[in-house]
Amino acid sequence: MKKLPLLLSIALLSFLGCKDHAKNETTNEHATHATHHDNNALSNSWVKDIQLDNGTKWNANPETNEGVTNMLRLLENNTPTTLEDYHHLAKALNTEKNYIVKECTMKGASHDNLHVWLHPLIDKIGTLEASKTPEEAQPIYKSIKENITAYHTYFK
Questions:
Q1: Residue among 126, 148, 156 at smallest CA distance from 46
Q2: Contact 60, 69 (CB under 8 A)
Q3: How many domains does the chain have?
Q4: What pLDDT digit, counting tens, does each position of 122-147 carry?
Q5: Would the N or C end of the chain have less CB density within 10 A of its end CB?
């Protein structure tokens, strides 16, 4: 009976030690993920991975095309200069991105290639929304514009 409190204490200390270790791992994962976001925000390396459909554009569902058209319109109608402008644009782009994701009915290789195009864009929009200064936001905005503009190179 005297060993029970000792065993409970050891078990509790072990559990708390594991919890702190898991917290540190989570913190490190968030730091790594944030760095990954920053690197992807300026990169358009996805163009090396995307493919055409035997030399022609992929057919996309109408809702995806509509969402991309709305994104292009947002970019054409906005010339952000302040941090608030960039954040407002990021939120509007995010709304359209969510519509594309929710309404996507594409399957197979066309769907896979859409994701090659879309995943970096998701990172870029999130990074733009989290930007701290207009100087930080401007190159991210430019990269987003290049990403969205390239859509019609690969999809119809």
A1: 148
A2: no
A3: 1
A4: 999 999 999 999 999 999 999 999 99
A5: N
